[in-house]
Amino acid sequence: MKKIRRRGRKILSILLSMTMAAGMMLTGITPGTNEVKAASSLTSADFLKTNGTSIRKNYGNGEKVYLRGTNAGGWLVQENWMNPTNAPDQRTMMDTLANRFGTSTRDSLVAAYEDNYWTTQDFDNCAAMGMSVIRLPFTYMNLCDDNGNLKSNAWRRLDWFVSNCSSRGMYVILDMHGAFGSQNGMDHSGEVNDGKQLYYNQGNKNKTLNLWAKIAEHFKGNPAVAAYDILNEPGIKAAATYSLHWDFYNEIYKTIRSKDSNHIIIMESCWDADNLPRPSAYGWTNVAYEYHYYPWNYISNSSGQASYTAGKVRDIANHNYGVPTFVGEFTCFDQEDAWRNTMSTYNQQGWHWTTWAYKVTGNSSWGIYNHSPQSVDIYNDSADTIRKKWSSVGTDKGWVNSKIYNVVKSYLPGTVTPGDSGNSDNSGSSDNSDNSGNSGSSHGVTFYEHSNYGGWAVTLGEGWYTCSQIEAAGIRNDQITSVKVPAGYVVTLYEHDNYEGAQKVLTENTSLLSDFNDKTSSIRIVYSGSSAGTSYSTTKLSNGKYYIQSIANDKVVCAENGGSDPLMANRDSYSGAWETLFIENNNDGTVSLKAEANNKYVCAVLDEQNQLLPRSDSPSTWEKFQIYKIKDGEYGIRCVDNGKYVKADLDNGGKLVATSDSIAGAWEAFRIVKVKGSASVKPVVENGEYYFTSIANGGVVCAENGGSDPLIANRESCGGAWESIKIENNGDGTVSLKSSANGKYVCAVVDEQNQLLPRSSSASDWEKFEIVEIQNGEYALKARANNKYVKADLDNGGKLVASSDSVAGAWEAFKITKTGESSGLTYSGSEKKAEFYLDSDYNGTKVSLSAGKYDYNAMVSAGIKNDALSSVKVPDGYRVTLYNDAGFQGGAKVLLQDTSNLGGFNDKTSSIIIEKVERPNFNNADTYITSIANNKVVCAENGGNDTIVANRGSCGGAWETIQIVNNNDGTVSLRSAANGKYVCAIVDEHNQLVPRSGSIGTWEKFYAEKQSDGTYALKTYVDNYYVQADIDDATSGILHAYGASVGTWEKFLLEPASDKTEMPGQTDNPSVPETTVAPTTKSAETVPEGYTEATVNQWTPSGKWGCYFGNWSGTASGSYKWASDADYNIYVDKANKGSAWLVQGSYTDNVTNGHTYKVTVDVTASKACSIGIKEDLSNEKEPQVYTDIPAKGTRTLTGTYTVTNNQIKVMFELGQNVDAGTNINFKNIKIEDTTASTTKESTTPTTVAPTTKGTAVVTTTVAPTTAVEDDTIPAPIGLTYAGNETLPYYFAWQAPTSDIESYNVYVDGRLVATSNTAAPTTVAPTPDASTPDASTPDGTTTDTSTTAKPKATTKKVTKKVTKKASLKKTKITKKITKKLSSKKVKLTFKKVMGAKKYTVQVSKSKKFKKVLYKKTVKKKKVTLSSKKLKNKKKLYVRVKAVGAKKWSKVVKIKVKK
């Protein structure tokens, strides 16, 4: 189930119960239904296999079957929101009950639950509704012990379930909801953990594979088992993991196929179609793909859910995997209209589905049935109490949810008639004549076999119809010849199944389809009502340049703001490009409108406003319109996609919106006027004879073999007819290309290769291209046949193919030169290749690759094994980027030269990018750097003591002068003339550039990437971010290194300094020391000696200790040193601020089960940081306490835990403010059993070095103790932040003094005052000659000054102090909206008592895996402003009071277009 299911559904159940009518109590069979009689069990004739995108009986050769029903969730997999317990997961429940009562009693209690939760009556209820399938979730715990051994009664429950379904004509899908170690780490898998315990644990993988082998062997040949659903919602913490789980899918697939060659195997995506591979990539057959759809953002919004569902339909159609689609889990909450629309849509698509779920707790729309069992306390309830509660969980103790029951039942297919293997299709939608559940009109659209409405006739209502659905309705594939279209309907015929291929749009009766005769394989029908009693006919306007004028206000339509804003009817007259629209006639009878202002197609943006916006590069359904003639000179415009007419909304300034059901008046009427002298679209290139040169390799395009072979960019010059191409403008904005080699037109052959071949005698759509000017004489070619850009495929010798979605770079760029003239380009010849080696020093298996992107599958297919690279040879002029994860994700290593040993990146490569780059040689010259964003010169502010900022109007001298030094590895370094220091990219939360380093290390290196416009982009070597001039910054123009791609902010002009002065120590060829330096705020630090580098994304154990550095939501790396279990060190050399959980330590020890333990440990940090302590090694639980550790200071961390598994596992989490270069030392860890009243013997108190030098009079910190002779000073109850960081100790004790009999005051472990003193003493710290120097772990020495000791007596304290509550959680009180293009967000939240400041975070992820923007504020009403917030379609915000433990509820920002 969905990630937030654990808590979210329970809350939803309570909220929704307030709006739902109580169901009637069940006393047996559901009222109004008949008892289901047992049928003969399903037979071999009913055995299911896939056949294309359908599922059929008789091993795939019989009639179609639609698997539609529900999930038996909550039965074998207990989730506490479905059947209440206080167990966090099933694993904990099983272990706790076994530890308390023994395994035998535990098993008998679980059996009582399972015997009562699902009975034969539940099978009858499902069959009575008309279900054809039940999906059965189970975990390995139902079948095996922890070692993977089958239980003696392993198959009892599953066999019973399958048999009962079979006898009622229903199938079963066996769903492994929980694998060994958990496939996602979520509670619904039965085991909460970090989500990595399956994929990175070979033992758990082997046990899972072995279990699937046993399941397949057991159910082999059983016709009642529809399919094996091999892993539920796979992925680390239910996030997309792509090839990580695809590869494991393949292992399971092969394992099952070794035992069972016939059953369907289901692969799930978590969550959308892009998280599944093409089946052919792994050779999978007889498989189905499963999705789980939960419209969380539209819980109470039916229209929003409809849009959500439509998006899923497009997603599946776009990926077109060619296998059956199964929606294994979904709900529409309490929205009845949404339920109907969703199930109608699923049925129209021919999808299979099962609702989640059959039965849940409370009055909840999640369940078809509801019940209210008593919650079980697994820690305190007696065995008898648990047995009694679990014996009352049957459906007969609950009630039917009438609303959900009735609406779901109406869309179910009915149970299967066993033993019938004929060819009739009786198991599909219950009413094939109305595939959508809403005909839209009593007439509908009628389709005929022959012209003039002859032959067979079939009428369809509004809806989407795939090939299988039109066949089921009686329409034969590719046999429609004429159509009757009533007024108000728009019919789109598609050449191929699933709404693909060529299209033809009909709005009126058509007696002969002519060019579309016998070509229809799928259909879309939209009904928007009649045209107010008036029927207008479509009309055709010739291609050309027009302006449009509203009849309502007599204003000319304008592409406002150069096309960036919606079309508006607001101009007094036609004046130029902003008011110019090109009309292009499409082959299907529609037109597309192209704005001259930005050369984009006008799109009807179908959202809550339905505005018309010129934003699309090519026309699809949203960019297609029909022109209706109202009368001479007046026209109506209708959007094809939603069937609505365009109107000039005079209530909204004349904005054009597609919202009207008819042409009701002047608002829907327009004049469409041809611009004088625009008989055709102005050609970009005039007619004539030309040759094309690829920008990517400088090769001239040639009609190879005299035109018999495809075009290829491989000639050094234009030598004759083979390289000569005639350009012929077609007058519609396109050109055709005629090869002089054979006199044939170049055709974009639309197949699996999309090659360009001169083979056609005349020009049709396949021979038409659009020439798009990119810049400075460079052009792109766009094929009309498939709307793809032509590229010179350098991975294939330079062959021209029409396959690019956009102009991504040089591969899609060409020079078009008249024959006889020079292009100015030089052909690079055979492209050089990078060489990849299995072993270091260029040994082992070698694979050579050309420039290109190689994701995991492409890399493996090329012969490079995953995580197996050790050395690389990089040809001159190329850059190789290695990525730790598939999809070009995770850590990265950039190579510009041969590398004999990849070092820390050895055997870590999962995807590769090879790029041809220009390596500019700046000859170590002095330059001025000017930002393109604000046209300001870059300056080393304050003589180099501050950050570099682009804020100068001109080049004034040394402060603006930067020497660019070429390094041996192809990088450059920047040396400021202001102070002679090298510019360092500081990797922290700001990523600013500061000239502060005396030598060059990794942090002082940059890639200088020349852009096509002559500017340069600078990319950091250390973390691969582009330098940008942040003109939104408060001190406008500060240079930061956090650009992900190159835009205006990331471009700089590099010019020689006109006033070059020699810098201190400068020579013509300076010797640059090549040392790797990690900068800090003062000076560079190196990793301490004796430390071992930790492996990223893995726990690295040492004794009882371990450490973890992660890069899954940011980037972190470091090393560790284990002296003993009493002395452990972690060194952080890289960490992204703002990303929690990236650096972690752990301590594990064996203890007594059931006892409570107090854990204390002394932690010293070289830099200020925050460390949390908690009781397990997962990220599910929040730390009990976060403690701020001052720089070079020591604090004691304390936690108390009750042990349930004979081990205590303590995690130490470095919070969101850990700096690179921080060393953390853990000492004196103590684990005290507090179950029995034991007291430790006293020892000498530890002396703690103060955090800063004590030179001023300060207020002492009041810290209560339990006894003056106690050997430690634990973090006292009531210790909180005092709000003044200038004090040596900035914590205060805020416990109520009324609860205290007395207290003692300690500073640095010394008693300085007691409650017998009249008042807390202010003490000036003074040096103590007797105190030795305190050395910190990094070798520096700190001031050991201590405070003076006042005269006082002590008094033993025995009374406990009441703990003061921490700051409460705040709440965002108002809905948040912003425009897509805006950088501002207004936020209002609830004030928290006692809070002085608040932290606000914004992320693109609901789980805040990476923080996009954060800010500390004082007021409860704030406006956030940052460029990072612009043009982000999904944004989430949360707030937390500084000092509070919990964040507010995450709120989604509504982004308006």
Task: Characterize the structure shown.
There is one protein chain. The protein is built from 15 helices and 93 strands. The two termini are 31 Å apart. With 1457 residues, the chain is mainly beta. The N terminus is likely disordered. The longest helix has 18 residues. The strands form 29 sheets. It has an eight-stranded parallel barrel. Strands 28-27-26-25-22-33 form a six-stranded antiparallel sheet, with no helix packed on it. The protein has a six-stranded antiparallel sheet with strand order 38-37-34-45-42-41, with no helix packed on it.
List the helices and strands and how they pair.
Layout (H helix, E strand, L loop, with lengths): L4 H13 L31 E3 L2 E3 H4 L7 E4 L18 H12 L1 H15 L2 H10 L3 E7 L16 H12 L3 E8 L23 H18 L5 E5 L13 H17 L4 E5 L10 H4 L4 E7 L8 H18 L5 E6 L5 H14 L2 E4 L3 E3 L7 E3 L11 H8 L8 E2 L1 H8 L35 E6 L3 E7 L2 E3 L1 H7 L8 E3 L4 E8 L3 E7 L15 E6 L9 E2 L5 E7 L5 E4 L7 E5 L9 E5 L5 E5 L4 E5 L7 E5 L8 E7 L2 E6 L5 E5 L5 E6 L9 E5 L13 E7 L5 E4 L7 E5 L9 E5 L5 E5 L5 E4 L7 E5 L8 E7 L2 E6 L5 E5 L5 E6 L9 E5 L15 E6 L3 E7 L2 E3 L1 H6 L9 E3 L4 E8 L3 E7 L15 E6 L9 E6 L5 E4 L7 E5 L9 E5 L5 E5 L5 E4 L7 E5 L8 E5 L5 E5 L5 E5 L7 E6 L8 E5 L35 E2 ...
Parallel strand pairs: 3-4, 3-10, 4-5, 5-6, 6-7, 7-8, 8-9, 9-10, 11-12, 87-93
Antiparallel strand pairs: 1-2, 12-13, 14-15, 14-17, 16-20, 18-19, 18-20, 21-29, 22-25, 22-33, 23-24, 25-26, 26-27, 27-28, 29-30, 31-32, 34-37, 34-45, 35-36, 37-38, 39-40, 41-42, 42-45, 43-44, 46-47, 46-49, 48-52, 50-51, 50-52, 53-56, 53-64, 54-55, 56-57, 58-59, 60-61, 62-63, 65-68, 66-67, 67-70, 68-69, ...
